[in-house]
Write a structure and sequence with these properties.
The strands form 2 sheets. Strands 1, 2, 3, 4, 9, 10, 11 and 12 form an 8-stranded antiparallel β-sheet that branches. This protein has a 5-stranded antiparallel β-sheet with strand order 8-5-6-7-13, with no helix packed on it. The chain is globular and about 70 Å long. It contains 3 helices and 13 strands. The protein folds into 2 domains: 1-35; 38-188, Umud Fragment, subunit A (Ribbon), CATH 2.10.109. By secondary structure, it is an alpha+beta fold. The protein has helices spanning 4-35, 81-85, 154-157; strands at residues 37-41, 56-60, 74-77, 92-98, 103-107, 110-113, 116-119, 131-135, 140-144, 160-161, 165-174, 180-181, 187-188.
C-alpha cells in the first residue's frame, strides 16, 4: 500500500541532507581557503620570467605557522603600510631576498646578501640600479621581483613585515604546459653563505 506520509518524509530528508552537504562543503572550502591554501593569479609582469601574466598558482598558507620564510621563497603578501598609504589594496607577489638581520646590497648588476653574491638564474636581467646596503629589521623581509628592472618592490618602498605575508607560492597549475613546483632557493656564490 502506498504511504503518502512516507513519501513526504523521504522528500524532506533529501532536502535536509542536500542542504547539510552544501553547508558543510561551503564551510570546508572557506576553511581551506582561509587557513590552508588558495589559488591566485598573476596580474603583472614583475615576476617574469618565473611567473607570467595570468599564471595560476597555489599559495601555501600554513607552512609559515611551523617554519620561517627562506631566501628564495616566492611569497604573496598584503600591501604594507607604505603601500596602503599609496593607495594599493591588492596583494603583491615577490621573491624573498633578505631575512631579518641580513644586509642586502645591489651594485654592479649583482645582489649581495651579507656580502655574498647571489647566483640567480631565474631573473629576467641583471638589475641596472644601485640599492643599499640596508639591514633588514626584525620580523621583516626584503623582497624583489624577478623582473628586477620592472618591479615595484622593496628597493622602492621598504620591507615586508612578517604579519603581512599571506603565504608561499608553491605550485603553478595553469597553463598546463608550465605546470609544476616553483624554484625556491637561489645559489650563493661564496664559501660561507649567509644564514637560511
Amino acid at each position: 500500500m502506498f504511504d503518502k506520509n512516507n513519501r513526504q518524509h523521504n522528500t524532506d530528508n533529501w532536502w535536509v541532507e542536500g542542504l547539510k552537504t552544501i553547508v558543510i562543503s561551503l564551510l570546508l572550502a572557506f576553511g581551506i581557503r582561509t587557513f590552508v591554501a588558495e589559488a591566485r593569479y598573476i596580474p603583472s609582469g614583475s615576476m617574469e620570467p618565473t611567473l607570467q601574466i595570468n599564471d595560476r598558482l597555489i599559495i601555501d598558507k600554513i607552512s609559515y605557522d611551523f617554519e620561517n620564510p627562506h631566501i628564495g621563497d616566492i611569497v604573496v603578501f598584503n600591501p604594507t603600510t607604505t603601500l596602503r598609504n599609496e593607495g594599493f589594496h591588492d596583494a603583491f607577489i615577490k621573491r624573498i631576498i633578505g631575512l631579518p638581520g641580513d644586509t642586502v646590497e645591489v651594485k654592479g648588476g649583482q645582489v649581495y646578501v651579507d656580502g655574498c653574491p647571489l647566483k640567480e638564474p631565474y631573473i629576467a636581467a641583471k638589475p641596472d640600479y644601485r640599492f643599499g646596503p640596508v639591514t633588514v629589521p626584525p620580523d621583516s623581509y626584503l623582497v624583489l621581483g624577478d623582473n628586477r628592472n620592472n618591479s615595484y618592490d622593496s628597493h622602492y618602498w621598504g620591507f615586508v613585515p612578517r604579519h603581512d605575508i599571506i603565504g608561499r607560492a608553491i605550485i603553478r597549475f595553469w597553463p598546463l604546459n608550465r605546470v609544476g613546483e616553483l624554484n625556491r632557493h637561489p645559489v650563493f656564490m661564496c664559501s660561507h653563505p649567509p644564514k637560511q
